[in-house]
Amino acid sequence: MILGHLSIRAKLTVAFSAALLLVLALAGLFVYLRVSSELTGAIDDALQARANDVAALLAREEENPPELSGGLFGGEEGFSQVLTPRGEVVASTLNPGAGPALDPEQVMRAAREQLVVEGSDVPGIEGSEARVLAEPATARDGSSVVVVAGAGTEERREALAGIASAFLIGAPLALVLASGLGYLLAARSLAPVEAMRRRAQEITLERSGERLPLPPAEDEIHQLGETLNTMLDRIEALLERERVFVADASHELRTPLATLRTELELAGRPGRSPEDLRSALRSTIEEVDRLSQLAEDLLVIARSDQGRLPIAREPIELNVLLERVRKRFQDRAREGGREIVIAAPAGLRAELDSLRIEQALGNLVDNALRHGGGEVRLSARGDDGSIVLEVTDQGPGFADGFEGEAFDRFTRADDGRTGGGAGLGLAIVEAIAAAHGGRVSVAPSGAPATTLRIAVPLEAPA
Length: 462
Hints:
Layout: H1 8-60, E1 78-83, E2 89-92, H2 104-110, E3 115-121, E4 129-138, E5 144-152, H3 154-202, H4 220-267, H5 274-305, E6 314-317, H6 318-335, E7 340-343, E8 349-352, H7 354-371, E9 376-383, E10 386-393, H8 425-435, E11 439-443, E12 450-457
Helix pairs in contact: 1-3, 4-5, 5-8, 6-7, 7-8
């Protein structure tokens, strides 16, 4: 709960300090244990050497008890003893009244095997606590004895206490210095983030081209800034596209509304004949139809932009679908002296939204009748898990270089096939194809002929 109210710099500093504290604690523990082990090993080696010297003396000394004198066998910080298996002192470097360094039970164990005792309280030894090594030995006369060698542990304790004190004093100082350094490094590392945050507060939709500053280092923050700038590019492009969409839609709506206003004003003038009124009424109905179609087209485009163009797939026979499209435009084609023919294998079926696909094919046929020439051919075929629908006519085709823009909304070539109309027909075809998981394209064909192709999967994608 406390960390939740801290800044990122503070959180990084806390995490760095905790990690450093753990490292210092582990390092201190390692050094302490390592030095303790080394000192203990040195003491044991010295005790073993002294016990060997005492055992060697017993093996060659005829005098009993042997004389344990001199610094070789004891001193202020060490001692040596020779004990009987019952714990009686045979020889000792300690004061006469000191007694054995081991209790009876320990002496019995040492008579059988080597024994090391830590923390024995031995009178006459500096600090009184000692580390004692005892092992069985044999005197020159063949009797069994126990050789005891001991050393005080005061120096080892002082050395370890010094190490512990050094860590207890030095570790907090190192922690404070490292935490301060860590805070400065965190602040410096997060400075680009702060710069991006300040710039993000200044970015508005009214000014285009504004982007977040990127740090010179090619690190994760740089990559984050690039990702956010790319996102801003997409948002700006989308907003610009929506502005153009609204502007174009307003322009397209203005023309039929202006025509409606003119026709109604003319019809309202006195002295108009019944024939003039009927003509004005027919023109008004045509403009209303155009407005209705434009509104429907805009709705389709808007839904496709939102990613939810409704698609209701059902198994359909493509011959039947193509025949419905042909009948819909048959009278219009005959008025222009043209024909609409169908080319599709019998029994070809697919799971499609029949109304949407019929709308797309209708737009393509309408485009062919408006701007194409000759026979209009409706065809369907299967192609490796997809269904391909084509509309072909014998017209001049698109203007050079316009194929890539033909399916953009409100796009019309000056002298090409898309002159006239609102410029939404092919855009709707593309939206319907995309909603089915397919695509629409201008198929390569021999001149004079133009083919628009819709390719969609036979079945709905998972």
